[in-house]
Design a protein that fits this description.
Chain A is α+β, with helices and mostly antiparallel strands. Chain A folds into 2 domains: 10-274, L-amino peptidase D-ALA esterase/amidase; 282-400, Ubiquitin-like (UB roll) (Roll). Chain A is globular. The first copy, chain A, has helices spanning 57-68, 87-105, 126-138, 145-151, 204-216, 251-274, 293-304, 307-314, 321-328, 359-364, 393-400; strands spanning 17-22, 34-49, 72-78, 112-116, 160-168, 171-180, 193-198, 233-238, 282-290, 340-343, 346-350, 353-354, 370-376, 382-389. At the A-B interface, helix 8, helix 9, strand 12 and helix 11 of A face helix 8, helix 9, strand 12 and helix 11 of B.
Chain lengths: 404, 404
């Protein structure tokens, strides 16, 4: 079992799924900006949404549709406009898009889920989008997963499309996924949209738990810039087309499926951080020996969100004092004299003070593109992993000129 | 009553205070790096320290000295080495410096307070510093306040030295101050050192409260990069040389003194943000209408600490969606439909959505160097002010190469 990245089929890889991507005129470049993911048969669905208090219109509409319908047929996504902070008119726009898509697919509007990404506060160009929907439904194909992933890109430099297969009780079950996200990335969702599809037969009641479990150490443990956006969501659709023999009736089957699902979420989450706005380094922070898993995550996040740590790594400067200082600024239980820090297996801190490694050697440990920071607090068994990227002048350039 | 910035006398402005600055060889440039502030007579003292869990050796030593002695004579400060995360040897170094200074001034070591700033994790070059101390005591003068402020600069581009005078019950009372700080600046102290001196007769028991009050809306409401360092402290010395007639026996006298003290703290805090590492804009965030003052401060900090807000302002892009998104990511009580946002008096958000101001006009509001962001949550009477600066490519350059 391994996850295939840069998958051409992606979300359309599992049986009975199709995707499409069309240009509705939202991106100035004229590139595809509207993606549609459809299950040929009604599918069970679950989703994780942003915790931001200004949830975008598509977030509110998708939440209502998940409550209103037991089955879902499609996810409609667009780049080029977040439809957030657009008030009642923005809500109406999202509803119109769902209604039109439902009419074209021959289902009820509540069976459509919707997501948007782009600048906050502007209305969507509704007429253009409604005009593009018939093309989007006409172009649906099992080969368009990658194209759909391309359509939802904003500042992303690469499309993010993956697939995997797994054997469950003698049956081959497929999982596909796509995501977008590069800036405004932070735990509990970011300017990050993701769709995961599977032909595994799943009940709606169990899907929410499975998805939450898969997101915990993946989508909810990454950060590019500490920003939690108004639009984040991860959608999961399961249409059961793999056949009824596959079922999560045994602990082994469940473990196998959760692992595959988590691997897909992990590959997608990793691809976001690796494509972090302006990033030159991919940083993996592992905290062990904390008083609890939650404390470990707090410490890991403090390090991963520190601008000074991120700039030091960018400058290949093994300035470990910034790592300790970032953790020390939290309320996590710390005994300085027990703290150990290694970067790419080079010891930098022992017993809370300099491990004696020459500066040059420490700095050399930061030469690779992948930076593993291992921190042991020496107190308990709590552990956590958090992934981020470095902070570069290029990030500033991208975000200083985003709207212009 | 007004605060005089760029004061030549600064901390040595009040009666009975002198300062000096010498080069001990900590800065590669050969510039002065050791500052001494002395009261000719025993002074009452108070201090605010970092809340970081890796407090530097000088922080621990100063805390012990404040407990051990009722009176204090001097503050010794150095740039070029933080003496943080240096373990027991670092503590001994700080104690040796205090002992030597005390011996030269003819007082007990506990009467000396000490502070350091610079790279974390390296031992101080103790022999050089001990050798420089006789020069530092010999050079003490009422004219060396600015020189002392210069000596404690790290990435600061300007020395920060102020003074003011105020009439209390017919007597002229003087207050002087100096500070350093440019990066690693965040509430509850930053890589920020400050010394405030006054010839006002004050009791040690009342000073702590006065200092805390003066810091709340000033040193504790600024941020450059969201980092709380291991070394921050604000020291205050009061030697009573203005004469015994000045006393805080009336509410009016107390209010006058607190206002003057706060003005000094405010001028120093503002000078730090204005000199923020790589900053091109000075951002003043005012939140009103929150459910409480604490919630207002949480919202103001979320906006001021947002990398996306800071880069947008740098790019003169009135992308107000990032302001709402940053507040929305907190747990502060918000009703989107009541939120108003103005930048430099240009309305950007009304009732949680676009105020209808053309983009060009919004962007033009960001042309000045000083950016006032006014946010009204429309819920209650809670208010707070928070000051920060923009995030620039230059900040990244400074911090990527800091140790090299």
């Amino acid at each position: 079992m391994s996850v295939h990245e840069k998958s051409k089929t992606g979300v359309a890889f599992p049986q009975g799924f199709r995707a499409s991507a069309v240009a509705a005129g939202l991106k100035k470049s004229g590139k595809a900006d509207l993606a549609l993911v459809v299950s040929d048969v009604p599918a069970a669905a679950a989703a994780m949404f942003t915790t931001n208090q200004f949830p975008a219109a598509p977030v509110l509409v998708s939440q209502a549709h998940l409550r209103a319908s037991r089955h879902h047929r499609a996810v409609l996504l667009n780049a080029g406009g977040a439809n957030a902070c657009t008030g009642e008119p923005g809500l109406q726009d999202a509803k119109s898009l769902c209604a039109q898509t439902a009419s074209l697919l021959g289902c009820s509007p509540a069976e459509i889920l919707i997501a948007s990404t782009g600048v906050i506060g502007q209305r969507l160009p509704l007429p253009k989008m409604l005009a593009a929907l018939p093309r989007a439904t006409k172009d649906l194909s099992p080969d368009k997963g990658l194209a759909a992933a391309q359509a939802i890109m904003t500042t992303d430099t690469k499309p993010k499309s993956v697939d995997t297969s797994v054997r469950i009780q003698g049956t081959t079950v497929k999982i596909g996924g796509m995501t977008k996200g590069s800036g405004m990335i932070h735990p509990n969702m970011a300017t990050m949209l993701a769709v995961i599809t599977t032909d595994m037969p799943l009940l709606k009641v169990e899907m929410k738990t499975l998805l939450r479990e898969a997101c915990r150490g993946t989508f909810n443990a990454i950060s590019v810039d500490g920003e939690t956006s108004t639009n984040d969501c991860v959608f999961m659709l399961a249409n059961g087309q793999a056949g009824t023999k596959a079922a999560l009736t045994t602990a082994g089957a469940k473990a196998t499926f959760v692992r595959a699902l988590t691997d897909v979420a992990d590959a997608l989450a990793r691809s976001i951080v690796e494509d972090g706005e302006g990033a030159s380094k991919y940083i993996n922070i592992c905290v062990t020996g904390a008083a609890s898993d939650i404390q470990a995550m707090t410490a890991a996040r403090a390090v991963g969100d520190s601008q000074l740590v991120k700039t030091a790594i960018h400058g290949q400067d093994a300035n470990w004092g910034r790592i300790l200082s970032a953790m020390g600024a939290t309320r996590v239980r710390i005994k300085p004299e027990r703290v150990r820090v290694d970067i790419n297996r080079v010891p930098l801190v022992r017993k809370g003070v300099d491990a004696g490694t020459p500066w040059d050697k420490g700095n050399k440990a930061l030469a690779p593109k992948i930076i593993n920071i291992e921190i042991d607090l020496g107190l308990g068994t709590g552990r956590a992993q958090y992934r981020t990227c470095d902070l570069t002048a290029h990030y500033v350039a991208i975000n200083a000129g985003y709207r212009n």
